[in-house]
Fold this protein.
Amino acid sequence: MEPGDAARLGPGRAARALPPRLLLLLPLLLGRGLRAAAAASSSGAAAEDSSAMEELATEKEAEESHRQDSVSLLTFILLLTLTILTIWLFKHRRVRFLHETGLAMIYGLIVGVILRYGTPATSGHDKSLSCTQEDRAFSTLLVNVSGKFFEYTLKGEISPGKINSVEQNDMLRKVTFDPEVFFNILLPPIIFHAGYSLKKRHFFRNLGSILAYAFLGTAVSCFIIGNLMYGVVKLMKIVGQLSDKFYYTDCLFFGAIISATDPVTVLAIFNELHADVDLYALLFGESVLNDAVAIVLSSSIVAYQPAGLNTHAFDAAAFFKSVGIFLGIFSGSFTMGAVTGVVTALVTKFTKLHCFPLLETALFFLMSWSTFLLAEACGFTGVVAVLFCGITQAHYTYNNLSVESRSRTKQLFEVLHFLAENFIFSYMGLALFTFQKHVFSPVFIIGAFVAIFLGRAAHIYPLSFFLNLGRRHKIGWNFQHMMMFSGLRGAMAFALAIRDTASYARQMMFTTTLLIVFFTVWIIGGGTTPMLSWLDIRVGVDPDQDPPPNNDSFQVLQGDGPESAGGNRMKQESAWLFRLWYSFDHNYLKPILTHSGPPLTTTLPAWCGLLARCLTSPQVYDNQEPLREEDSDFILTEGDLTLTYGDSTVTANGSSGSHPASTSLEGGRRTKSSSEEVLERDLGMGDQKVSSRGTRLVFPLEDNA
């Protein structure tokens, strides 16, 4: 019978047409088919149930992760809230032995102990998989598990001795932040506020000394600490306490990051007690600039790569290349920050944003913060860029802002600076117990304390000696001792140390840096007030008031004879280079970038008349008084400053050409216009004789310092 015949016969007749043996096997075949169909159906249902269970488990894990994220952020917010309330209590009770940063660290330590020892382990680790065929670690890994692909990211290297003690508490992992959070979110407002709130008058008065301490001092401190720590590392190797590699470049890197001073505690007490303004300016200026120098210096040390097999040996070519990288990064970051500030000044000047203070404040905030990210994206250092952006914004853009925006920007960055700084110090206390890669070495820690003390002394006292040779106001021994005492380490050193903790050497550096910050903030910060009293340093000084001028600070000389030319001359506080810059800034940059300064039609050549009229703000013509910053930077109070105002020439401590009909005296006092009074107030001239008809500042080119 053909195969198709059974179908034509129908089911009953087909069954009767089949051979007897097939009839006997038919129930068995039908049973197997039914069981196979049932098995297939049950396996499909099981697969669907398994997939549903996996989706449900994934959703629960996501919810649990979200909950832990919320708890970790809530923990830090509660820490900051508790810190603020305690700060109020300390200020109310006038307690000065512990600063707010030290208080934040104590609260962080308490919470860290609770999280470390008071919370149970909530997750475990699966078995480790060996990839012996690969010679490097991948940053991202795709794993095929039964046809499903899972993505894994690299968290870091684990030493073989700690493979079984990897932290199994998810909560501790959540409170361990990515180091980039510190650099991209927390550091920019801190550094920008330092530049934006800079007291330019006192800063520029001590500019030479500040630059010497910040650049030469930081470099000297870096190399002294690095070499001393290299000796300590050699000692550790001899006594058998060094379990991994620690190179000379690692020691120099540690010297660079630990040279970043952050005397926030001392400066806060100085500000509260109104300590001597020159000492405040020296400490504040050094701490602001040496943070920038330290981060660029550490980047240059990392970039040091000698040719040949030994990548840690000294190579002159690699050394000079690192020096070039240092100069290139610093100058590029400085330029980027200044250019961003100039662009913001131009935008706020030539638009009507001042009519909308909210938009003006928002634009100012975004432009300032983007400076940091732009510099980092271009391979420069955002810390340097945002610092000089803040200084530029305060010098130019601030003049263009509305009254509301001036108040808002000051308060906004002050609040962000306060919260970010206390957040970092709270995290420092937390990290002592939650960070999983600590390497405690007593020999290295003790050696580091000795090294930073010697490094600080080796650049404060010698540099002060050489600086006093050219300063009229000497840096006294009590100032030098206070600067030596005030070399605290803080947020910048911590952020640089935590940025890379992959190797054994970097982990030891991070642990040591954390302990150094604890000691300096608690012990040195708490001893600031007694030290001020013991060193007999002035307190109760108004920081916005200049020291009383000498009797011959400004003299109006009515003649140009030999007696006038040979009058008393005092040493300039400001270098000739800065005087030239000040003249250029007052006559050209201020009128171009702001609504203040003399009209460009009076300072630019006649053939630039059209350009001068386009760039000069209408407010300059409309207002009798040019706009002026709250913190005036007219700082030249002594020396050869010649003012040519219309037909009258006035020279401070120098010769003068007399011009008739410009000065009228009534009972020993002269009648002045409003613009004359503004100029005299800005220059600190008091009742000196000046008449006006267009501004021109003339500075001598020789240096009398």
Observations:
- The longest helix spans residues 20-93.
